[in-house]
Amino acid sequence: MTQFRAFEVTKQEDGSFNRAIVERDTSDLPDGDVLIRVAYSSLNYKDALSATGNPGVTRNYPHTPGIDAAGTVAASSDASIAKGTEVIVIGFDLGMNTAGGFGEYISVPAGWVTPLPTGLSVREAMILGTAGFTAALCVHKLEAAGMSPISGPVLVTGATGGVGSVAVRLLSQAGYETHAVTGKKNEHEFLTKLGATEIHPRSEFDDESSRPLLRETWGGVVDTVGGTILFNCVRALKYGQSAAACGLVSSPIIPASVFPFILRHVNLLGIDSVELPLEQKNVIWEKLASDWKIDNLEDFVTPLILESLSDAIDRILAGEMVGRGLLAYAN
Fold first, then answer.
1. How far apart are CA 259 and CA 88, in angstroms?
2. CA-CA distance, 59 to 9, in Å (whole number)?
3. Within 236-324, where are the H helices?
4. CA gyration radius for the chain?
5. What is the per-residue pLDDT across 210-252, written as a single tens digit (0 to 9) for each?
6. Any idea what DSSP says for residue 199?
7. pLDDT of residue 331
């Protein structure tokens, strides 16, 4: 048994939620095949929802959020994962209803664990985290559907967020003409530094007209927001091209018609990084460690410690976080 610190959310009698840093013991963790000493985690929008009592993310409290974790195996009952191995865990139930990476230890099933690929450090893995992984998964699926740099400019919505910012860098690094959509006028320099060739205000994509199609513009779309913006992107896809949908911060509802799909032969691709089988997750991590290794990852980082998490959660809920919040432990 080992004592460790964790960021814990508790539900009060009046229905409110309290956040605090607590001392826990590894014996308090769920039974799992692999005990991992966490070196880094990262802050995602879903973590903020968990920390504020969203029942669609977390049902039972007290709870430690953190859907991402990377560190070193402290103990393992699975012969394929040796003690001392550096590993990554994202998705599945981590940080949702299983104690997550906002604690210095996690205990998880072996089927959730990715050995750290050669070419990637645990710090780099958590700068990417679920957000960076999701961005890469979007590009992977878009390219499998036929997208290439000759398809035309690729649009990224919600471009200053975790998924969007990594998508901008990944696409631009891969040779795509990358356009970014943001409502943050003061972050244009950040997006230009990531490789965006053109930046569009969010208001350009709020068209609520009933026109079935818009001018063919995009060779691909990575959409992180949903709602009207997503369908306006679909209406402006070039013939045969695709949009990858991975977020809903604007709205889970799209005001859609079938016209773009049957007149322009376009595709709307769903992206899920939570329940994606581990074998497929490992493929994406290998790409991020090799062919898709992202330059200057530190450009994305807002450094966090346990004591600064609560304020960062409020900022991400308010739409004020840019890039990736990286939680580092001193262990």
1. 42
2. 12
3. 259-263, 278-289, 309-317
4. 20
5. 788 999 999 999 999 999 999 999 999 999 999 999 998 888 9
6. E
7. 60
Written as six digits, the tokens of 294 are 């992202």
* Helices (runs of H) and strands (runs of E) counted in the chain: 8, 15
Q: What is the pLDDT of residues 53-111, one digit of tens each?
A: 999 999 999 999 999 999 999 999 999 999 999 999 999 999 999 999 999 999 999 99
Q: Which residue has the tokens 């990575």?
A: 222
Output the six-digit token pair for 147.
């997208």
For the full predicted model, state whether its pTM sits above 0.85.
Answer: yes
Distance CA 208, CA 188 (A): 26
At 268, the pLDDT band (50, 70, 90 cuts) reads very high
Instruction: For Cα atoms 159, 225, 149, give the angle at the middle one, nearest 5 degrees.
Output: 50
Does the pLDDT at position 288 exceed 80? yes
Give every CB contact of residue 330 below 8 A, 6+ residues apart in sequence: none
At a CB cut-off of 8 Å and minimum separation 6, what does 93 contact? Answer: none
Q: Which helix (H) or strand (E) holds 328?
A: strand 324-328
The span from the first CA to the last CA of the chain, in angstroms, equals 16
Mean per-residue pLDDT for 26-38? 95
